[in-house]
Design a protein that fits this description.
Layout lengths: L9 E4 L11 E4 L2 E3 L8 H17 L4 E5 L4 H14 L6 E5 L4 H5 L2 H6 L5 H14 L1 H5 L15
Parallel strand pairs: 1-4, 4-5
Antiparallel strand pairs: 1-2, 2-3
Length: 153
């Protein structure tokens, strides 16, 4: 587990092939901005790059947390290409473990924290917050899911 990044302006990218990449803006532990889902297909790739670059510049994003699940490499490549195209986007990208994010996003606690947010976007917010304070996020997940193999009784 890495040290907490702290209260730095953070963008979360939750990769996905079928649903596209979910983009929640997580600025500090008590504040987040409206999530922006987008799809990384060639037709919309440029439009998505322009939108993400504009948000990075507008909110002075310092860190980009990319979930390590399905399509994470493609999402990482997308962000690196975006940085070449938009040199003002200087945020540092970090690959973040998605372990348990889907369990958390469907939990009662997540529903209480984000009652108006879709389940898939709750997981994306969790990925962004894991970069800021990993332990604070991991304690929200049932410990049984962290075990590999059978859970001891």
């Amino acid at each position: 587990m890495a040290a907490p990044a702290g209260l730095r302006a953070t963008m979360g990218l939750d990769p996905g092939l079928r649903t596209g990449v979910k983009v929640p803006w997580w600025m500090a532990p008590a504040s987040w901005l409206r999530p922006t889902p987008f799809i990384r297909i060639p037709v919309r790739r440029q439009k998505a790059a322009v939108a993400v670059a504009a948000l990075c510049e507008k909110h002075n994003v310092e860190l980009v947390a990319i979930g390590n699940g399905t399509a994470s490499r493609e999402t990482e490549r997308f962000f690196l290409d975006l940085q070449k195209q938009f040199p003002k986007v200087t945020a540092q990208k970090v690959i973040v473990s998605e372990a348990g994010a889907s369990v958390y996003s469907a939990s009662e606690l997540a529903a209480q924290e984000f009652p108006d947010l879709d389940v898939s976007l709750r997981g994306a917010v969790s990925i962004a917050r894991r970069l800021q304070d990993p332990l604070a996020e991991l304690v929200k997940i049932d410990p049984k899911i962290h075990w590999r193999g059978p859970v001891p009784a």
